Amino acid sequence: MWTKLIKLSFVPNFFHRSFMKNNSLHQVASQVRRDIVRMVAAVNSGHPGGSLGCADFFTYLYFEAMSHNPKLFQMDGIGEDLFFLSNGHISPVWYSVLARSGYFPTSELASFRKIGSKLQGHPSTDKKLPGIRMASGSLGQGLSVGVGAAQVKKLNRDKSIVYTLHGDGELQEGQIWEAAMYAAANKVDNIIATIDYNGRQIDGDVEQVLSLGDLKGKWQAFGWEVFEMNGNNFESIRSTMQQAREICGKHKPIVVIMRTEMGQGVDYMMGSHKWHGVAPNAEQLQLALDQLEETLGDY
Amino acid sequence: MEIEVLGQKDTRSGFGEGLAELGRINSDVVALCADLTGSLKMDAFQKENPERFFQVGIAEANMIGLAAGMTIGGKIPYTGTFANFSTGRVYDQIRQSVAYSGKNVKICASHAGLTLGEDGATHQILEDIGMMRMLPNMTVIVPADFNQTKQATIAIANHNGPVYLRFGRPVMPIFVKPDATFTIGKADVLQEGTDVTIIACGHLVWKSIEACKVLAEKGISVELINMHTIKPLDEQAILSSLRKTKCVVTAEEHMRHGGLGDAVAQVLARELPSPQEYVAVNDSFGESGTPMELMTKYGIDTIHIVEAVQKVMARKA
Fold it and tell me: Which range among A17-21, A125-129, B21-25 shows the weakest confidence by mean pLDDT?
C-alpha cells in the first residue's frame, strides 16, 4: 500500500474557490435547505430537522474547509481530508452537499429513499455512492471509525485530517466514550469531531430524555481540546474551525460543540423536536420553499 | 486411518504464529487487541511491529469501529479477543461498520465454545457461527488444528472482505501438514468412505478422526470431511459425498441452531434430501469444567459421533 503514498496531483479546493467567487456560502446553504425539504417531502419520509440545522456546517465543510476531490472519489482518500457522518439519519443534508459540490449529479437527489437508489435512507457504501466511506445509522459508531482512519493517516504519513459529526442524543451511546477515551490516550490529534448540539432528540428535549450534563466538562475530562461555536453562523463556524485546525498535531484530539437550531431556516420546524423525522406535506413544503431562496437551481 | 499426529498444540497459538508471520511479509497488516494479547498469542506481532499494534483496552465495540476505519487508507486490520466478545458483544458494530460497509476486517476469535473450560457459560459462546454466517459479505472459517489455523490466518489476508476466524484454547493433536495450502471455501476430504459421511469443523475434526477408528473396527466405512469454511460452504464436496454415502453426521463445537449442521442441512434439503444427525450442543448454555469433561457432558465427544453414525445409518432407506 506504500505505493499509494505518491502525492496525488489534484488541486484541492480549486473547483470550490472559483465556484465560490459567485456564490456565497449563504446561497449554497439556501439551496441545500431547499434540496432537503424537497427530498423528504417527495418520499414522505426522512429527517429534515437535523439536516436543516446542519446545512450551514456541511456547506462550510465541503465548500470551504476540506481538501478533497469530488471529481475522482477514492475510498482510501489518501492525501484528502475525510468526513464521517456518525448520525446517519441526517443523510439529506449530506447527499445535497455531496451532489452540489460535484460528487454526483444533482438529478440523483430525486431518487432519495426510492427502491434501487444509491441514496439510501441512511448512508451506505454498498450502492457505491461517491463520497460515502462508511455506513451509518445505528448510532455511536462513527467516532471509532474516524479515530481508526486518523491513526492510519498517521501510519501513512498523510498530513490531511479527519472530521466526524455526531448528534447530541447520539452521545448517549457508550461506544462514543470508549472512542473518546482511546483517542486521548493514544494522542490522536488529527481528528476534529463535531457535535450537533441542537438539544433535541426523537422523544423530546435531550435534557428531558437523558441529560448530557456538563458536556464540555465531560469532553475535557476525557482529554479532548474543546471548542464551542454557533453552527448556524458562518463567521462563528469559520473562525472556530480555523482555530481547531491550527491545534491539530498538538497531541490532543479536538471536539467542537456546535450549537444549532433543529429545523433552521424553516420557521415552523424550529423550536421543537417534532420535525426530527417527519416530512412536510405538499402545503407545508410550499410554506418551507417560500422561505428558502432558489440560488443554484432546483434538481 | 492413515492420519498422522504431528504434535500437540492449541489453535490460538496457530493464530499467533500466523499473525507474526504476516507481520513480517505484509506491511499492510495491523492488529488490534482488547486486553487479551497473551491469551490470543499476539505478543510476537506486537513486539516485532509496535507501530502496527493497537491495544484498545476492554472496549470491543470501539475496537471493531477502529478496525473498520483503519481499512480506509489501505490497512488490513486483524482484531483479537475471545469469541464471545468478538461476536455477541459487538454484533451491531460488525453488522453496520464491517459487513454492510464491506470492510476488509479480519475478526479473530479465540476461546470459542465449551473448550474454554473453567470460566463457564458467560465466556463459552456457542452461537457465534450462526450469528456470523447470517451476515451478508461475511466469510466464516473454523480451522481444525494448529497448522490449519496458522495457514488460514495467513491466507485470509489475501481475501478482500470481512472474515470471521474462530479458534480455541485447548491443546489438541496436530494432523494438518505444515506445508498444506489453505483455500477458503474448499473442504478437505480427510478419508474416503462409502457408508456414511461425517462433516466436522474445529476441534470436532479430531474427535471425528477418533470416531472413524472406532467405526472402522465395526466395519463401517466413513467419508470424513474437514469443513473448515462454513461460509462460503463447499456444497459440491457435500453433494458428491452424499451421493455416495446417502447419510451424514455433522459435528461441531456449537449450538445445534445456526451452525455447520444447519448450513449442511440447508444444502441437502434443497439439493439432495438425506438423513442427518447433529453432534452439537442441544439448546443449552455450558458450565465450568475441564474442556474434555464438558465435551462429554454436552454431547460433542467421540462416543457421540459414533452413536450418531449408527443412528443415521439405521435411518437410511
Answer: A17-21
The answer to whether the CB of A167 falls within 8 A of the CB of A196 is yes
B189-198: per-residue pLDDT in tens?
Answer: 999 999 999 9
Nearest to B69 among A125, A146, A155 (CB): A146
Give CATH for domain B7-174.
3.40.50.970
B31 φ, ψ (degrees, to nearest 5): -130, 140
Listed in sequence order, the residues at least 6 apart from A214 whose beta carbon sits closer than 8 Å to its beta carbon are: none
Environment class of B307 (CB within 10 Å of its CB; exposed 0-12, middle 13-18, buried 19+): middle
Contact B110, B143 (CB under 8 A): no
The mean pLDDT value for A55-59 works out to 98
Global ipTM:
0.96
Q: Do B61 and A174 touch (CB under 8 A)?
A: yes
The type of residue at A213 is G
Residue by residue, DSSP assigns A103-144 as: SS-GGGGGGTTSTT-SS-SS--STT--TT--S---STT-HHH
Active site members of B: 60
- Interface touch B65/A141, C-beta < 8 Å: yes
With CA atoms as reference, report the closest residue to A29 among A174, A231, A278.
A231
CA B33/CA A139 separation, integer angstroms: 23
Does A136 contact B51 at a Cβ distance shorter than 8 Å?
no
Q: Which residues of A touch B65 (CB under 8 A)?
A: 141-145, 147-148, 175, 179
Is the model's pLDDT at B109 over the cut of 70? Answer: yes
Q: In Å, how far are A10, A61, A91, B91 from A47, measured between CA atoms?
A: 34, 20, 8, 26
Say which of B68, B95, B96 has its CB closest to residue A148.
Answer: B68
pLDDT in tens, A256-281: 999 999 999 999 999 989 999 999 99
How close, in Å, is residue B252 to chain A by CA atoms? 33
CA distance A251 to chain B (A): 16
Contact B65 A174 (CB under 8 A): no
Region of B209 please: left (phi>0), alpha (psi -120 to 50) or beta: alpha
Give me B284's grid cell.
Answer: 443449552
C-alpha B191/C-alpha B208 separation (Å) is 11
Q: Is the peptide bond before B232 cis (omega within 30 degrees of 0)?
A: yes
Domain ranges of chain B: 7-174, 188-312
Question: What is the arithmetic mean of pLDDT over B12-26?
Answer: 98
CA distance A132 to chain B (A): 10
**CATH number for the domain whose boundaries are B188-312:** 3.40.50.920
Mutation pick from A152, A157, A176 vs chain B, by most beta carbons of B within 10 Å, is: A152
What domains are there in chain A, each with its CATH number?
25-289 (3.40.50.970)
Do the domains at B7-174 and B188-312 have one common CATH topology? yes
Determine, for residues B93 and A141 on separate chains, whether the beta-carbon distance falls below 8 Å. Answer: yes
Averaged over B149-172, what is the pLDDT? Answer: 98
- Chain B residue with CA closest to A135: the answer is B101
Amino acid letter, residue B262: D
Q: Where are the beta strands (DSSP E) in chain B?
A: 7-10, 29-33, 53-55, 76-82, 106-110, 139-141, 163-166, 171-174, 188-191, 196-200, 222-226, 229-231, 248-255, 276-281
**Contact at CB, B75 and A4, closer than 8 angstroms:** no
